Amino acid sequence: MKRNHTMMQFFEWHVAADGEHWKRLAQMAPELKAAGIDSVWVPPVTKAVSAEDTGYGVYDLYDLGEFDQKGTVRTKYGTKQELVDAIAECLKNGIAVYVDLVMNHKAGADETEVFEVIEVDPNDRNKDISQPFEIEGWTKFDFPGRGDEYSSFKWNHTHFNGTDFDAKAGRNGVFRIDGTNKGWNQNVDDEFGNYDYLMFANIDYSNEDVKNEMLNWGKWLVDTLQCSGYRLDAIKHINHEFIKEFAAEMKKKRGEDFYIVGEFWNSNLEACREFLNTVDYQIDLFDVSLHYKLYSAALGGRDFDLTHIFDDTLVQTHPANAVTFVDNHDSQPHEALESWVGDWFKQSAYALILLRRDGYPVVFYGDYYGIGGPAPVEGKKDAIDPLLCARYNKAYGEQDDYFDHPNTIGWMRRGVPEIEGSGCAVVISNGDNGEKRMFAGEERGGEVWEDLTGNRQETVTIGEDGWAVFPVNGGSVSVWALPDPEPEDDCVKE
Which residue range or ranges hold the Glycosyl hydrolase family 13 catalytic domain (predicted)? Predict the structure, then answer.
């Protein structure tokens, strides 16, 4: 029987810019596997505007830390060879690697060009607020450090449809590039009227040369790295038809099991459903609506009704396409989409994504190992490890929900014969101490279960009728299960 899969987002915004991150990944692969992690999403691997840039200010897609460009050979995370070695080490340890792709824009151009634009209202990009006029924009990418190695394609203003800075006037704005067949793409999110434009020089996917170059790059990258899948950044700003074509081409190249997950940062379920329809369900989406539910629950405390925690979430309506997460690099403190799930609820939130039947859960590096930078946050490895272990060894079989009290909810996983000792009872409270009477199965009568989190010290004996009462501390979570006969440090036993 297949074990549950668990992903880790292997970076946070303030990972040290010391060029050691790929080495860290290679070194930590065995311990990640032992903890129950069998896939990692790594940050953008391509050369950005500086050695400190997290990777989203992407400059050269073909430079993976190999050429002397933007004042550095390595990226923030290391060199190309260190990256290739890290991926190989992960695969050797049974860990799939998903690479973050930034395909919406380019930054750090080599030269400016003069071309015509129309300025638009930033709050309604369909509304022109100027006549056509000339600007000097940073849109010429010649890659002098790389030359024609891997690709001879050079970018200029005809390959973009928008930019945000006029070097001639020294001012910012949202400038739509004017010209034949130029305009915002219509197959994008409709926030601000049209959300094709996000930042920097915006890639124009109505240009056939651009489309072909990006498809060729996607195939080159997977051949070069031998990775297991992609995480696509900011896809609500990219022509949805191109995303569909890109996913199809990558799967054609690497096989149907090549995995793709997209960041479609929209908590509107209907928008997510429309997007999945458009791309023929070839990719999964992060469950942004669940993230905001967890955030609201953390803010609301006992006033939040836990029985509704999964209402209007992707994991509820599209479980096969939902990638669940508690927090990430954008939602962490002081970042663009800050919506940090508070400490008191963090372990409960992870139980909600790790110990249920549906969704592909992601553990955030910043939650597990901590956050650096000017406002450090301590990691919660000790709180998350027991949940990872329970996911790997216990959370299998039928799922019975006991969502019948606004402040105390529970569910039972009944276990499967193929995994000895599997099955668990999870209880969460956001109010006072509570308990939940749940059915484990008559065949389990007499079994003595412990709280794997260590939050409760007593044991619970399953009644002969298969029922038992499982307690939980106020504002806490307990995961009750049959203890392993020989507890070891490693969660994954060979």
Answer: 5-391
